[in-house]
Each structure stands twice: as C-alpha cells, then as structure tokens.
Design goal:
The protein has 14 helices and two strands, in the order αααααββααααααααα. A two-stranded antiparallel sheet has the order 1-2.
Length: 345
C-alpha cells in the first residue's frame, strides 16, 4: 500500500488545482491584457484604419460570440486534462453532433420543442456526444489504453460517422430558433450578447461549482495528481474516468449545437483541428498536461486569448496560413512552458 505521504499528496494537489492564490488567477488575465495590447499596437502602426473597428463594442460582441464553441470545449477539456487524460476527438465530435442536430431539426419538421420547452435536437446532439465520450472513457479505463490513443482513433471514427451521416454533404435545415443562438445582435436587444454567450457563461458558473465545491471535482483533481493514491483513498478510478469523459462528450455535443447555430446547417467538415485550439486554451489558462492542475477560469481566459488572436490577425489582414503558423507556435510554446513548470514542481 502507498504511504500516508502518497495520500497526502492528493490533498496538496487539490489546493494547487483550486488556484488558492489570488496571484494565480492574475496570470491568465495578465496574458490576456498582454495579447490585447500587443495586437492593438500592431494594428495601430500597421493598419491604423482598423483601430476603431478593433476597439468597437461590435467587435467585442463578435469576439465573445466566436469564443463560445472553443469556450464550451475548453470547459470540458479542463475537466479531462486535470484528471490526467486528454480528448483528441473533440473537433470530430463537434462536427458529428452538428450534423445530428441538423438531421433532428429536419425530423421535427420545424417544431423542435417538446412540450413547447425542451429542444429535441439539442438533447439528441448532447446524447450522441455523451455516447462518444462514454466509449472513450470505457475503452480507456476498462482496457487500460492511454486516452491519447483511444481518442486519436475516435477522432477518425467520429469524423467518418459525421461524413457518412451527412452523405458527405452539408445537411440543410429550415429556419428555427437554434439558428438564432449565435446571432451577434440578439432578440430581445437587452440581452446585449448572443444567446450562445450567455449559455457559455452559465456553463462556466456550473463548472466552477462542480470543480471547486463538489466531491466529484475533488476526485477529478485527485485522479490527475496521483491515481494510485486516489484509488487507495477509496475513489473508484474506472467509474469516475468514464463519468468524466461522458460529461466531457456531452459538452462537446452542446458545442456541436453551437456550431450548427453558427453555420446554420450541419457541416461534417467543420471543426477540423478544433481540439488543438481547445487544448491550447486550457494549457494557456494554466492547466498541466500531466494532470492535477488547472482552473475553469484560466481555461476560459485562454479561450478568449485564442479567439482574440484570430480576430487580431483578421484586423491585421494576415494571411490564413500565417494565422495557422502563429497559433501552432503558441501551442508549442504553451506546452513547453507547461513542461518547464512541471519539472520545477
């Protein structure tokens, strides 16, 4: 059996994961401020005509709206990475559930609400996402296969299912309420931001409660910090890992609904490499790929930073290939910094 030192490492890691220091929360905020000022200066000197657009309220609404899909994915990925896992199938699951949502809208013949309250296509998409997450967790936990390998295979499986389910074309659907979720200017106007932004904020608050104040949240940190110590502390490792991936898959399914709302149809080719943006957001937000450390707040700030970079590149009129090189470099740098932090710990 492990010593009491192993068991105590769980509790110490929980304190680290919770971000006990106020200064720990300032790190991602400082990063966001730095990126904003850097982009502002670059736009000011190289494309001064776009300064007003960059600082406008409309652009703020656009950035927050574009953060929704990555933001919801980052919330799910935070839980998975903190527990010591990873999910490379996120982008493919978003595409699959977006296609499923479009099909469900067509099956409902425009009347998407059950009893006038519950939107059936949303439930259908979330259930499919949860099913994929359950398979990821079950195969990984039961068979002892690394989540990296399992989810890498599921990435191809889910993308193939999305293309097959859509007959390798875009699934068109009639106008419905779901298509208004990602409109920059909501109706009613007093909401200020798109419905999707408020959904993202609500999920953020729910995840803060789950990760910081629930028993399940403590178990997530414990699994990532020291799985053996967690097991000997009475935590059912297999059941909790399956639950983590299932809940994460359900949230990727909701991100798929937002993707459907953004595009207006079910596109099986959407969200390619989205998982990289999501993972980058989580790591930039301070989570460790080794597990046991990370915060929901940091991941949301990381998601905003990723979206802000894309937005700034557009304002700077940077070519698409340059944007990909820039984001790819940031991902490598974030992982490198995380490796240095882990070694020092």
């Amino acid at each position: 059996m492990p010593s009491t030192e192993d068991a105590s490492s769980v509790d110490s890691s929980l304190a680290k994961g919770y971000g006990k220091s106020f200064f720990a929360l300032l790190i991602p905020i400082s990063g966001l401020i730095f990126v904003f000022l850097l982009l502002f200066l670059l736009i000011f000197f190289y494309v001064p005509d776009n300064v007003e657009n960059f600082l406008s309220i409309q652009n703020l609404k656009t950035i927050l709206k574009q953060t929704v899909i990555v933001g919801i994915g980052a919330l799910a990925m935070t839980m998975i990475i903190v527990s010591g896992g990873i999910d490379l199938s996120a982008g493919s699951v978003v595409a699959l559930t977006a296609v499923a949502c479009a099909h469900a809208v067509n099956w409902c013949d425009g009347n998407i609400f059950i009893g006038g309250i519950i939107p059936l296509p949303v439930l259908f998409a979330i259930m499919i996402g949860a099913a994929v997450g359950y398979l990821n967790g079950m195969i990984s936990a039961r068979l002892g296969i690394a989540p990296f390998i399992v989810t890498l295979g599921m990435m191809l499986v889910a993308r193939g299912l999305a293309e097959g389910f859509a007959d390798e074309t875009v699934v068109r659907s009639p106008d419905n309420f779901l298509k208004t979720l990602m409109m920059r200017e909501p109706d009613p106007k007093w909401l200020v931001f798109a419905y999707g932004v408020w959904i993202n904020i609500f999920l953020f608050l729910m995840m803060v409660i789950l990760m910081r104040f629930s028993v399940f949240g403590r178990r997530i940190y414990a699994l990532g910090a020291n799985e053996e110590a967690a097991r000997y502390s009475g935590i059912n490792v297999i059941r909790n890992r399956i639950l983590i991936f299932t809940l994460g898959g359900a949230m990727f399914g909701l991100a798929g609904v937002m993707s459907y709302a953004e595009i207006g149809d079910g596109d099986p080719t959407t969200a390619v490499a989205l998982e990289l943006d999501i993972i980058a957001a989580v790591v930039i937000g301070g989570a460790s790929l080794a597990g046991g450390r990370g915060t929901v707040f940091g991941s949301m700030i990381g998601a905003i930073i990723i979206t802000l970079l894309y937005n700034g590149c557009v304002m700077l009129r940077v070519d698409d290939w340059v944007q990909k090189v820039l984001i790819g470099g940031i991902i490598v740098a974030a992982v490198w910094v995380d490796g240095i932090r882990t070694q020092r710990k």
